[in-house]
């Protein structure tokens, strides 16, 4: 069995590894840890003009996007609030909710920081 560090929030010793994260079963806290239990540097995601994006930022779509199954797409200039950065598929690294469309993933290359 691995020697995983205790939870930094509640000090629970029953943590377990899930992919690249360490998870606490008592409080639900998740954090990235390498072999020694130290935090790993997080990825840097940049928007279309080079600004660094963070979780919770507001962004604006810079070009019209077609949405499969929708007669109208997302228009350029649409504001998206409270983004979440994820390791998505095919470069889709932003998880968000767009009014009128619902939850979806976007590429950081089609948005700029608001």
TrEMBL record:
Query: Hey, which family's this protein in?
Result: Belongs to the YjdM family.
Positions of transmembrane segments: none
User: What InterPro entries is this protein classified in?
Assistant: YjdM, YjdM_C, YjdM_N
Q: Which Gene3D superfamilies match?
A: 2.20.25.10, SH3 Domains
Protein YjdM N-terminal domain sequence ranges = 4-32
Q: Which NCBIfam families match?
A: phnA
Which organism encodes this protein?
Answer: Streptomyces roseirectus
Q: Which Pfam families match?
A: YjdM (PF03831), Zn_Ribbon_YjdM (PF08274)
What is the protein name for this chain? Alkylphosphonate utilization protein
The Protein YjdM C-terminal domain sits at 45-114
